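Morning. Coffee machine broken again, so started the prediction first thing and wrote up yesterday's gels while waiting. Chain of 147 residues, entered below exactly as on the submission form.
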Amino acid sequence: MSRPDRAHSQSAARSLARKLALQALYGWQLRGCPWQDLVQEFSECEEMPRADAEYFRELMQGVCTSSGALDAALAGWMDRPPAQLDPVEHAVLLIGTWELKMRPEIPYRVVINEGVGLAKRFGATDGHKFVNAVLDRAARELRPHER
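Came back before lunch.
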């Protein structure tokens, strides 16, 4: 596999990991079960062999174990408390905020684009606009050196 093909394949696997994490975090918000149970449940998902399973687990653990701190940060970039968010947009914002804080090797524009894409696909009609605005504010604060 050539280098560009490998990079595209890795990017697609990571995007799929984000999508699966969004779905798992949606369930986590509604059911309140341990994140480890969701990782186990999703390991049997038919899409997981094409996903970056390690990144999926890292996202789940990182977001779930630091959700209080992530929500506190989100509250500063929004006009409402995180508890009032739609679960899809909340999950997208948790993933994006975690990536902006913890994965500096992922360019902020990639984080925002991935979040907007997930919100367009799974969120409310104009939810992607809200996600874009919040993640843009987050990136300005968390990644000022990238702008």
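The radius of gyration is 15 Å. Going to sketch it on the whiteboard this afternoon.
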